[in-house]
Design goal:
This protein is α/β, with parallel strands linked by helices. It is about 35% helix and about 15% strand. It folds into two domains: about 1-230, Rossmann fold, CATH 3.40.50.10260; about 255-500, UDP-N-acetylmuramoyl-L-alanine:D-glutamate ligase.
Length: about 500
């Protein structure tokens, strides 16, 4: 058993519900012990570690196998002398076979089992006690019933911390969205700790998952089957921390790549000044370690005094795109339209963001040029960095469609456009053609402000300029970008300009 945030040093596979069920079938075929018994024992051990001095432990057990996990945990806790009570939703006769066996074990052990939450007993719970959410695991695919909604609300009102088994009830294990499509996580159990079994699930790390799961632990239940078992292919991997690359002593500024930032439409063109976005990307490229950073502000008639002195400024016509890593679109506005064709055709390496993406979504010719970059022999590495709305425009679907299956949306985009995709948001997804995507777990809600996406684009371009392949650069940039926010002082407001200066 180990924590998943921050991720452990070894790779962690992430499986969708369909793949988890396939793994359960493999485990049951090869195991000499029931998975439910192992899951219950694991849950009991973690419960004891979390609240060793608990005077009351309430287990809310649902009508499926997740409820069986809770019943097994209750049996162990009772045998260890802890005061535990179970509320079982539904009739024992209607439980699946494994869960019904767990119920019988609990009854035989003398565990108190009720059909309703013990109201007076629950009112006496304190923060030293514990609630265990075993209502609904990964099997749910629709909004919780009215009865289950009531039980969810009771769990959320409890003073005691909540341990969710496998997935907090009401959370879709694949997407991190609320089951049934509710816009807010009101009808999701808000756990303090989530113990997930067999493998990590994508919904724990994206959407509302990070807000309602609390600390996330994994028990792979590896004792359930031999070491030579064949497991389903990973649907994703958790993004791994990547330290900065070392530099040779005998190097110079030309050894670490040149980045050109193209964007920043001035206010005089269309009444909205966006030069700051391009400057943020340039700052990020600098602090990401690029040897030289060139800023090309579109429509600018002269040098901008607000640009850091470390950054060179040039007109777009002076750029030799074939020798540069280009970060295009940050604050590009309408001005990006006049240069985007050349950027797509000639840039040696490219990061496309913001207005550059919106322009591609509306122009089939530019979309074809973007795809051709990946189809060309030898390839010209390309990364796009859409947020969900921009991804929806590129895919021809709604933002909600993207959010309901972020893994598939990112992978589909990467295949359609033959490039690496960083689908930004809670649990950013990094996808590349013919590669298993990664889910980034660093970062927090402080990044939800204007300009942080420009910083990510600039950092990604900087890492590509220094020689990292597109997928590796995107994974590293997403991790470092989020890590800077995680390390942010609690008493200090995060701003994009400060973020760019604290990337390493």
């Amino acid at each position: 058993m180990h924590r998943l945030i921050p991720p452990p040093l070894q790779p962690v596979a992430v499986l969708r519900k369909e793949s988890v069920r396939a793994q359960e079938r493999i485990q049951k075929t090869l195991s000499t012990q029931a998975l439910m018994a192992l899951a219950g024992l694991s849950a009991a051990r973690l419960a004891l570690a979390l609240t060793p001095h608990a005077r009351r432990i309430w287990v809310a057990a649902g009508p499926g196998n997740n409820g069986g996990d809770g019943l097994q945990a209750a049996c162990h806790l009772h045998q260890w002398g802890l005061p535990v009570q179970v509320s079982l939703m539904g009739s024992p006769e209607q439980l699946p076979d494994d869960a019904r066996a767990a119920w019988k074990n609990a009854v035989d052990a003398g565990v108190p089992i009720h059909t309703e939450p013990p109201s007076q007993w629950l009112e006496q719970l304190t923060n030293q006690d514990l609630c265990i959410d075993a209502l609904l695991g990964i099997g749910g695919n629709r909004a919780p019933s009215t009865e289950m909604q009531t039980w969810i609300e009771r769990l959320n009102l409890c003073t005691a911390p909540v341990l969710a088994l496998d997935v907090p009830t009401g959370l879709d294990a694949d997407s991190g969205q609320v089951m049934g499509g509710a816009p807010t996580p009101r009808l999701v159990v808000h756990a303090d700790v989530t113990l997930t079994f067999l493998t990590a699930k994508p919904g724990l790390f994206m959407g509302h998952g990070r807000d309602v799961c609390g600390d996330i632990w994994l028990d792979a239940l590896t004792s359930a089957c031999p070491e030579n078992r064949q497991l389903p292919k990973a649907d994703a991997w958790l993004n791994m921390p990547t330290p900065p690359a070392s530099r040779k002593h005998a190097s110079h500024k030309g050894s670490h790549g040149d980045v050109a930032i193209v964007g920043g439409e001035p206010m005089r063109l269309h009444g909205m000044g966006m030069t700051g976005a391009a400057v943020l990307a340039a700052q990020a490229a600098l602090h990401g370690g690029a040897g030289r950073v060139i800023l090309s502000l579109l429509g600018a008639s002269g040098e901008n005094s607000a640009v850091p002195p470390d950054v060179m400024q040039r007109q777009f016509a002076q750029l030799d795109l074939s020798q540069l890593t280009v970060v295009a679109g940050c604050g590009g506005g309408q001005a990006i339209l006049s240069v985007l064709g050349d950027i797509l055709r000639y840039s040696a390496r490219l990061v496309l963001d913001a207005d550059g993406l919106n322009a591609v979504a509306q122009n089939a010719d530019w979309r074809a040029l973007l795809r051709q970059r990946g189809d060309t022999p030898g390839q010209r590495p390309t990364v796009i960095t859409p947020h969900p709305l921009e991804a929806g425009r590129l895919l021809g679907c709604s933002t909600q469609d993207v959010q309901c299956d972020r893994l598939r949306a990112a992978q589909t985009l990467s295949e359609q456009l033959q490039c690496t995709v960083i689908l930004k948001g809670s649990g950013s997804v990094i996808a590349s053609p013919a590669q298993v995507p990664c889910i980034n777990t660093s970062g927090n809600g402080r990044l939800g402000i204007g300009g942080t996406g420009d910083v990510l684009a600039g950092l990604t371009g900087s890492l590509m300029a220094q020689g990292r392949p597109a997928h590796a650069a995107a994974c590293s940039a997403a991790w470092q970008h989020g890590l800077a926010a995680d390390r942010w002082p609690h008493d200090e407001a995060l701003t994009a300009s400060r973020l760019a200066c604290r990337l390493y």
